[in-house]
Amino acid sequence: QVQLVESGGGLVQAGDSLRLSCAASGRTFSMYAMGWFRQAPGKERDFVAAISWSGESTFYADSVKGRFTISRDNAKNTVYLQMNSLKPEDTAVYYCATTSRPYYSGTYYTGSFYAYWGQGTQVTVSS
Q1: pLDDT one-digit tens code per residue, 11-26
Q2: Which residues lie below 8 Å from residue 62, measured CB to CB, with a gap of 6+?
Q3: SS3 at position 89
């Protein structure tokens, strides 16, 4: 059974940094693409960043490009989201997700690309 557990969220001030972690279990982590999405109150869940199964390709939403960095550590079965220069509009629940198909690439920015989701971690950025 695939499990994804996010951590690292919290309350910070604008301009601060946070690093989110997503620990995966239940299968061979290195074979699957990973993504981060976020959902603000009253809004739809939006794509934030993704990383290919190989780690060679990364993808970002325009709103976070240059400020956020996604990475993966296959030895620790963990994907990270380093968030710098945080803004109040980054406030949301952040979810990690992964695919059901190994070595799969495609439309990383769509929720339908992913089959498994974590429970989410709250990030609040005060102005």
Answers
A1: 999 999 999 999 999 9
A2: none
A3: helix
**Amino acid, single-letter form, for residue 28:** T
Secondary structure letter of residue 1 according to DSSP: -
Q: How far apart are CA 46 and CA 29, in angstroms?
A: 23
Q: Which two tokens stand for residue 36?
A: 């981060």
Number of H helices, E strands in the chain: 0, 11
25-60 pLDDT tens trace: 999 899 999 999 999 999 999 999 999 999 999 999
Q: Which helix (H) or strand (E) holds 13?
A: strand 10-13
pLDDT 10s digits, 51-107: 999 999 999 999 999 999 999 999 999 999 999 999 999 999 999 999 999 998 889
Are 49 and 67 within 8 A, CB to CB? no
Strand-pair category, 10-13 with 121-126: parallel
Q: Residue with structure tokens 């989410």? A: 120
